[in-house]
Every structure is written in structure tokens, then in C-alpha cells.
Write a structure and sequence with these properties.
Elements: H1 2-20, E1 23-25, H2 30-39, E2 55-57, E3 59-61, H3 73-112, H4 117-129, H5 138-152, H6 158-169, H7 175-180, E4 187-189, E5 206-208, H8 214-227, H9 232-244, H10 266-276, H11 280-283, E6 286-288, H12 298-301, E7 304-305
Parallel strand pairs: 1-3, 2-6
Antiparallel strand pairs: 1-7, 4-5
Helix pairs in contact: 3-5, 3-6, 3-8, 4-5, 6-10
Length: 307
């Protein structure tokens, strides 16, 4: 009897963990997606701003619905934001968890003036991921690496990630999204991989990178903002905001992303997009477990994937 009770306790805990966890979905129609959102109360002000709770559900889509490009603008834009907001928050949670670990290593380095073997391997791996390089050795090397990583490993405003994706994909209508989950039109040079550009006048020896999921596309772009030399001004500005303990809001970063597009009005368009759709509210929001506690009905649960 005792073993049965223990088994039931663990079974309940396991079930609670599943209910409180993230939900990942694969291929579906817009109608199915809206049914899922309605089931979990993911409606919101203007259709996508979760006020007054500031909580977003852990609902992650691998791709936009198959009929997404055919929707009218108002409906498509609201769903575009709703699909990308939880993904952006998930990515930022991962970055901030990495930053917390990094800060603990920085604290240990300041105390001991050296790193142990595990910390050294961690810093070297992170430096490679965030494109931090130096020829220095010993103490000076890790002082430099940790100083640069302190600036680079930090959150990217979700509103910025959504705003840039909206401009690059025409709010999800661009064929590159449907064919390759490409939110930011990342280029691949001199390669047979990727998607062939259409109706463009640029050089013909490049392709557009495709991704296994929307998350993968957004994750790579966030890493690019945090690592590429072209965005050092954005990171310096973020550093100043950190010192002032200010909100890291997307609209403020628009002028720092001029190099991301050849459009002359890119900064103004990005700033307008973030402001008009009030995406700063998403920068103040968090992921909540409570919204997805109910198990889905069978006609929707079969759309779930493991990742």
C-alpha cells in the first residue's frame, strides 16, 4: 500500500510538471492555432498584449500556420506578435540564465584572480560563441574575456526581435518565412544551402539561410546582436541602461540597428513599429506557467510535438 501511495504522489507531481511546462506545436492551420489560444485564454488587449497580468503562455510554434500569409492584415499582425512573443521571452530567459552563471564566474575571478579548469573551459566556450578574441594569456586574458562577455551576454528586447522580424517578413507574408522559417533574412555566401532569392538586383552568389524552426531563427539573430561587431553601439547603449537600472526597451535601440538594413528609413520604421503596436509592454512581460495548466482536448493535443 505504501508503495502505491508513493507511486501516486510521483505520478501527480509528474503530471503537474507536464501541465506547468511548455507546449510545442508543429504544423497546423490558423483556425487550429486560434482554438488553442482561445482554450488557454491567450487573447489580450489589442489581441496580443496580456494586460493586466503581463504573463504570456509557454506556447511555442515551430512554424507559422500553413495558411498564415492569406489572412487579412489585422488578424495576421495580431497572431504574428502572439506567436513570436513567447519565443522571444524564452530566448531572453536562456540568455539571462547564462548571464547569471557568467556573473558568478566573474565574482569568483575577482576573488581568486584565477579560474579553475571548469570555469576556464566555460569562459573559452562562451568567448567562442560570442565572438570575443584576444591574444593575451593568463590573468590578463581572462580579465579581458570576462569584461567583454559581461557586455555581450545580456537580454535583447523582445519588442526589438518582433519589430525587426515584422519589417523583414512583412508581418509573416514573405515566402522566406513559409519556406524556411527565416525571420531576419540572414545571408549565406558561396553555398548551395539555403533559399534562392527572387526578384532581387544584388549579387547572385548568396542565398537566404533557412531554419528548422522560428525559435532557431530568432535565437541566431539575438546572438548576432550580442556578438557581431556591427552592433557594438547597441550593446554599449544597453550597458548604460543597465548602469542606470532602466528598462531595456526596444524602441530606444532602433537608431543603433542602422547597419541591419539598406533601407534609408529603417530606424524610423522600426521605432514606429515598436511604438505603434505598444510592444514595450511585451518587454515588461514574463512567461507564466499557470496559463497552460489545463490539458488540451484530443483534437488539439495531437498537434503537440516533443520539441
Amino acid at each position: 500500500m505504501r508503495y502505491i501511495v508513493i507511486f501516486l504522489i510521483f505520478a501527480c507531481l509528474s503530471a503537474a510538471s507536464v501541465r506547468a511546462g511548455e507546449l510545442n506545436f508543429g504544423k497546423m492551420t490558423t483556425s487550429q492555432l486560434e482554438d488553442i489560444y482561445k482554450f488557454y485564454g491567450y487573447e489580450g488587449t489589442r489581441g496580443y498584449l496580456m494586460l493586466p497580468t503581463y504573463h504570456y503562455p509557454k506556447i511555442y510554434l515551430q512554424q507559422f500556420p500553413v495558411d498564415f500569409a492569406q489572412l487579412d492584415d489585422e488578424r495576421r499582425i495580431a497572431l504574428f506578435i502572439k506567436v513570436l512573443a513567447p519565443l522571444g521571452m524564452k530566448i531572453n530567459d536562456e540568455i539571462l540564465a547564462e548571464r547569471e552563471k557568467l556573473l558568478s564566474v566573474i565574482t569568483a575571478f575577482r576573488k581568486n584572480n584565477e579560474l579553475d579548469a571548469e570555469q576556464t573551459a566555460y569562459v573559452e566556450r562562451l568567448a567562442k560563441e560570442y565572438d570575443v578574441f584576444t591574444r593575451l594569456q593568463g590573468y590578463q586574458r581572462y580579465k579581458h574575456l570576462l569584461g567583454e562577455l559581461f557586455i555581450k551576454v545580456d537580454e535583447v528586447p523582445v519588442s526589438l526581435l518582433i519589430g525587426v522580424a515584422a519589417i523583414e517578413t512583412d508581418w509573416g507574408k514573405n515566402r522566406l518565412v513559409a519556406e524556411g522559417n527565416s525571420l531576419y533574412r540572414q545571408l549565406i555566401w558561396h553555398s548551395d544551402e539555403g533559399m534562392t532569392p527572387q526578384d532581387e538586383t544584388e549579387e547572385s552568389d548568396y542565398k537566404i539561410k533557412s531554419y528548422s524552426s522560428l525559435y532557431a531563427s530568432m535565437k541566431e539573430f539575438a546572438n548576432k546582436l550580442n556578438s557581431h561587431v556591427n552592433f557594438y553601439q547597441m550593446r554599449d547603449f544597453r550597458k548604460r541602461l543597465r548602469r542606470q537600472k532602466s528598462l531595456i526597451a526596444g524602441a530606444w535601440f532602433a537608431p543603433k540597428l542602422l547597419t541591419n538594413s539598406p533601407l534609408k528609413n529603417y530606424a524610423g520604421l522600426l521605432e514606429y513599429t515598436v511604438a505603434f503596436y505598444e510592444l514595450v509592454i511585451i518587454d515588461k512581460s514574463i512567461l507564466g506557467d499557470e496559463m497552460t495548466e489545463k490539458p488540451l482536448p484530443d483534437n488539439l493535443s495531437n498537434l503537440l510535438t516533443k520539441k
